[in-house]
Amino acid sequence: MDMLHAWVSHHLLSLHGLMVILGLGTYVIASHARRQRRHPSAAIAWVVLPYIALPLYLLFGNRKVLRGHPPRPASAVPSSDQSREQTPVARFQHLAGALGLPPAAAYQQLAIHDDGQAALTALRAVITGATRSLDLCTFLMGRDALGQEITTLLMHKAREGVRVRCLIDGIGVYLGGRPPLRALRASGVQVALFVSPWRSPLPGRTNLRNHRKLVIVDGELLWTGGRNLAAEYFVGDPDHQKTPWIDLSFDLRGDLARQAQSRFDQDCPMPPC
Length: 273
Prior knowledge:
It contains eleven helices and seven strands. The protein is α/β, with parallel strands linked by helices and 273 residues long.
């Protein structure tokens, strides 16, 4: 033991240097492979605290999965078009392209919900109006009166012959009180968890979460916004003294709904309709 202590003490700086090199190597390789831009301050943590940064990185990993090719840098703009490039629309398009976002899509019949009650009324109408397919994505689904109503509607549509797919975040499913997944599956609803921390094929993805809230009907109608499917996000829950959140949601039709359908199909492990 004394010999080991003496050896570690003698080579302490070398061991620390090795950890720093290992941490920085992991940082650089991961950033390059995933085409991520990181602030220089992030690299400091790998130098100063490699014993903490490296294990945390291996455990939690990244919050993003990039698909496709990285965005191409903007080409030089002719002087005649420079004034056009300075318009708000052009600047927004340039920013969206740099972030790798999909191109702008058209929409029709946009309806912004006035409050939680209007959002719930619209959600009910969207779900009950499904005739061919119904795809639902949420971070969490509360085990409360509202969550029970939504699950009942989903099961009813599945029994009618509508193809119903439900994608819930692998950690959010527990935060909402864990909805009745077995009952949903038994009724014909296809249920999947987005990157379950217990059965994920992707190591180091604990921090990769899906906060999208999408309800897509027949590939043509989209209900979306910031509301999770729990009572406090709509009308509140008096039984548990939860007042309604002030949030935004809306529904629309058109190409943007079809773009959301494509996004759902990429996130969902179940085959598309």
